[in-house]
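Hi P.,

Sorry for the delay on this. The queue was packed all week, but I finally got your sequence through. Input first:
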Amino acid sequence: MKFKEKNIKGSALLVAILIMGVFITASISLSTIVFREVNKTKSLLDMGKAYYSAESGVEEALYYLNTELPGFHLNNKIGKVSADSVFEYSLKNTCNVYPCFDTDEYDLDLVPLENFYSVLALNETITIPLFTIEDSEIKSVKNFSVQFFPAFDPSTDLKIKSMGGWDVLRWKLFGMRKVDDKFITESIGDLTAFASGSAPSGDDVFANVDRPSWFGTVNCSQMGNRGNGISNIKCLDYDLSVVWQSEAGKICTNTQARDYVSYVSGEMRASYDCYDVEKFLADRMPNVNGSTGLNYLTLTNMMNPAVFDEEKFPTIRERAEMSRLYFRVETFDDEIVREVAEITSNGYSGKSKQSLKVDIRRGSYLPVFNFSLYSTHQSEKEEEVFF
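Then the structure:
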């Protein structure tokens, strides 16, 4: 009997140990599941916080675009949303050509020449600031060139075959300076015609995509020596026999303007003579003779749709479409504001990171969400996971 009792007591202890082992194993398994779910929940919460932190960076960049002068840009800025959520963003808003092609993003040798131009519709006016803002300092453009060509072929699309001397692009350059504690605006401007000339082959050519008409501070033959040009576009030389004369009887070149409005002896005066565009800009650099450096260029399409062959283009809409001008503005070593600003914002919370990239056209109210990259960093050793 005593022997049997000892065996029974030993079995009970063994059973108790086995049951405890089962419970411990179940507890550990359950704890592992709970901890994993807690980590997943925390990761999801961190992802949400990181996303909204990235949006905070976008919103701050949009605020600066709406409240600062055109051309404002930031290389990198860090902000804090909460104790465990931060964001960093950059605002890319400058370029040395309009429309902008970023050499860091594009292989320019593979870009068709047509893509280097923007479109100016019939009677449309565009205003381009010739300055940028860097660390609250105004940096003004010293040299620029506007190149343009038409949408039509004069040999087949017009009632008449000659376009010599037709002024089609109206441009004005505005500068502001302080005189007697008042800010006054001065300007130069002109009407510029299409050009025709000789191609390297010796053939006569009309203004086109790779040999456009032009005006600006830089002579056509000097274009290749002015630094950061981004393409092989070569402008045409104008035939001075068809260039309009000033009222003083002078022949003005395309680096000069016939219309000059200035502030002299307390009043605005207009003159119609050849005035160097480069000199106008040089005299209106920041802090030169009270100048602000806030210079603007306006371009207006002044084409006349009545010149088109009405049998070939019978509707007003067709003639208006053929009246479009293709244009680009190059500023060489200086920069101007982009037509589309690029905001890149990263949000962080815990081990999560969310990234947003937003494009917004100058003057528009809402951004265009180009694309969004969502990523989660679980640890330094694990790979980034993109959704």
